[in-house]
């Protein structure tokens, strides 16, 4: 056995304590979201555990331990002299303000869903098979939708669509748009609200997601202009779209090349396909050195790769496929013009044209 370096060992120990502290926080933070504890402190101001118990009708002893845990996490501020807890404006951006790009309720739920699906993914390690979307956890698709929503709310209309060449005026004038892999419909409905002259059809192969998407469309009063249908990306029943969008799902597909070829056949001449994918370098070494790459590789192990391997072909691009592999997929399907229209800390936006 090689000699252990004490400095490296202690550095790794410090990292492990931080990582495990974060992991231990997942259930307590989710309880805080579900019981409205962060919201109550933000709305009504600083409180002791007793005051928080009066406001919520919950157990003071549990609330005190919970609040101290969140203070230790750095998720609440704690003033020892008054024994009171509060949220800073910055903490509220993560735990209360749902339209904030940093709101994380969905992220914590996604972690819990990955843990719930652990046994099924472990079995797939042994047999080389996949785990179908929606089968690994009770409501993985709900958690994924909630996880992506803050990013979509703050980017789709504001920066991603405007980065496409000549698309914004057409959306404003009125075109038919297909949102492929729409999930529970957040992305589709955001676009529909922003562009009332255009019509939108959302497609997803997961029927329970489409059921929720239709409920959302009705609740937002958009059912007349927005339609959701259960359909795989390689079997869209309609054609003649001037714009096709695909948010964070091409890499999950079993046959992304077949899907790309089919989407090309669904576009009108001069149409555009916008593909939003997780940001990644083409060099794995750079991805593993990034905190974003760390999140994506772990999520990809538990969700993206098993989902792809459960489908025909099972290419399993993974959430860190990188632009070069994505371009190869698009070029091979007949999209000769592919460019990175814009990017952010978590996503890249590719624009593809035949």
UniProtKB/TrEMBL annotation:
Residues spanning the membrane: none
Keyword set includes Transferase: yes
Listed Pfam families: Methyltransf_31 (PF13847), WHD_Rv2258c (PF21320)
GO biological process: methylation
Stretches assigned to the S-adenosylmethionine-dependent methyltransferase Rv2258c-like winged HTH domain: 29-94
GO molecular function, one term: methyltransferase activity
Protein name: Methyltransferase domain-containing protein
Organism: Teichococcus globiformis
């Amino acid at each position: 056995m090689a000699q252990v370096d004490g400095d490296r060992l202690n550095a790794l120990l410090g990292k492990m304590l931080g990582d495990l502290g974060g992991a231990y926080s997942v259930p307590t933070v989710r309880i805080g979201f579900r019981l409205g504890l962060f919201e109550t402190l933000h709305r009504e101001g600083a409180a002791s555990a007793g005051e928080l118990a009066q406001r919520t009708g919950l157990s003071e002893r549990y609330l005190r331990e919970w609040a101290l845990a969140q203070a230790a996490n750095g998720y609440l501020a704690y003033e020892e002299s008054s024994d009171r807890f509060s949220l800073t404006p910055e903490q509220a951006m993560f735990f209360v303000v749902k339209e904030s790009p940093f709101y994380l309720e969905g992220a914590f739920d996604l972690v819990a869903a990955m843990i719930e699906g652990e046994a099924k993914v472990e079995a797939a390690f042994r047999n080389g098979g996949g785990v179908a979307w929606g089968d690994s956890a009770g409501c993985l698709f709900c958690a994924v939708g909630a996880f992506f929503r803050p990013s979509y709310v703050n980017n789709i209309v504001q920066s991603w669509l405007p980065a496409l060449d000549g698309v914004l005026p057409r959306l404003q004038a009125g075109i038919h748009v297909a949102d492929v892999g729409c999930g529970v419909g957040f992305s589709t409905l955001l676009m529909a609200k922003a562009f009332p002259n255009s019509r939108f059809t959302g497609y997803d192969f997961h029927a329970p997601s489409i059921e929720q998407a239709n409920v959302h469309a009705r609740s937002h009063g958009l059912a007349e202009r927005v339609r959701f249908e259960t359909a795989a990306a390689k079997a869209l029943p309609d054609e003649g779209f001037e714009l096709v969008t695909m948010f964070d799902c091409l890499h999950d597909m079993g046959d992304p090349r077949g899907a790309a070829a089919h989407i090309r056949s669904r576009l009108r001449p001069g149409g555009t396909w916008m593909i939003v994918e997780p940001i990644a370098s083409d060099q794995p070494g750079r991805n593993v050195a990034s905190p974003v790459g760390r999140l994506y590789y772990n999520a990809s192990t538990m969700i993206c790769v098993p989902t792809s391997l459960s489908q025909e072909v099972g290419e399993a691009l993974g959430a860190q496929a990188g632009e070069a592999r994505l371009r190869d997929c698009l070029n091979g399907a007949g999209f000769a013009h592919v460019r990175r229209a814009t990017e952010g800390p978590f996503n890249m936006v590719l624009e593809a044209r035949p």
